[in-house]
Specification:
Length: about 250
């Protein structure tokens, strides 16, 4: 007669193995949805972070675009004022220039002065107080070779041009805009405005430009580039937040 004890031992072993197998199946069944849920949660967090970053960048880009458009309008307004004055005489009246400039400085927060440079020499500066170092500054004899080169290039152009980003005297990176003034097809001078603290070192001035410098608070990702040369102003402004290379020209069309 076979022993009962070995049969009982075998049955207990099979029961234990069955329990472990059941636990393993339960673990697998639970692990799959847990892993799937975790993956979905991570994906949702990543998508949410991407959406938040995209929304913030879009807001910054839109703010920058509006600021640049405002500065371009100011550039064109300053040039139009100079053109009108020069049509009525050989010189620009200082009183009328100061009156015109007072409508923009200091009402526009990032504009600290407006300047006109007949033959590249600063003869009209508003406000003069705090900007005395600018008066008489010759862009074509500036100690910075980049400034001289930009001044020479600007005098050959009719449209609004950009340089930058570059470190400004007032701190931060800036896009510098400039525009030449022509009378009967001949170069008269340049007009520009300046963003930053009044009375800063003139070495940090934007040069040869009507419109001046725009401080970027979005970091070094904001650039102008050669890709803008065939773009409209709106397209160029929209691309500043993603363009990888510096130095470009904003078309006047």
């Amino acid at each position: 007669m076979p022993s009962v004890e070995p049969i009982h031992h075998t049955s207990a072993r099979k029961a234990a193995l069955g329990v472990w197998a059941l636990l393993l199946v339960i673990f697998i069944l639970l692990s799959v949805p847990i892993a799937w849920s975790t993956s979905l949660y991570k994906d949702r967090i990543v998508r949410k972070a991407d959406q938040d970053a995209a929304a913030e960048l879009a807001a910054q880009a839109n703010s920058l675009r509006l600021a640049v458009e405002r500065r371009l309008l100011l550039s064109e307004s300053l040039k139009a004022f100079a053109d009108t004055e020069l049509m009525n005489g050989k010189d620009i009246d200082v009183v009328r220039f100061n009156e015109f400039a007072s409508h923009f400085v200091p009402r526009i927060p990032d504009v600290r002065n407006l300047s006109l440079y007949p033959n590249g020499i600063a003869r009209y500066v508003y406000p003069l107080k705090g900007n005395e170092a600018l008066f008489g500054l010759n862009l074509f004899e500036h100690p910075d070779p980049e400034v001289r080169a930009n001044a020479n290039r600007t005098m050959k152009m009719e449209g609004v041009t950009l340089i930058g980003p570059r470190e400004l005297a007032q701190g931060g990176l800036g896009l510098l805009t400039r525009q030449s003034i022509f009378v009967n097809g001949r170069f008269w001078g340049v007009c520009l405005d300046r963003a930053g603290r009044a009375g800063a070192d003139p070495g940090g001035h934007p040069v040869g430009g009507c419109g001046g410098s725009l401080i970027s608070r979005c970091g070094p990702t904001v650039f102008s580039c050669s890709a803008m040369r065939n773009c409209s102003k709106d397209q160029a402004c929209a691309r500043w937040s993603s363009c990888p290379k510096a130095n470009g020209r904003l078309p006047a069309n």
